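Note to self: keep these together.
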Amino acid sequence: MAFRDPVDKNMLRMEARRFAARCDGQVSLIERADTLREISRLATLISLPFSLTDDDTARDGLRLVQTRAEDRARELILEQLQNFSRAEEYQHEKLKRSMLDSWTNLTGPLGHLRTWAYNKLQALEQQTG
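Structure:
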């Protein structure tokens, strides 16, 4: 593709805007997701086409998707930990198994949150008991 051709430049610009719009739609889906599995799936569903790797608009859109997915996953993990701390002592093992099971869904760009969540849980367990 010749980059000096104005038609090709306009086509790339239009494709970048369309990709950014898809990313915005993905962000809104991520914000409504209520499970870590769904967030992880939505975070990896969209990928940057090679033709748009040099376009700042497209890269910013993808970065926004990944950032919002990470933020939403952190929110859900903190909510789970808060529920764990409020629960009665006899419910802790059941809730812990449930949390560990849901954290296994953190893969791909959200994989580093699994370690973060384990550390938060360990700190919480040390505080309570």
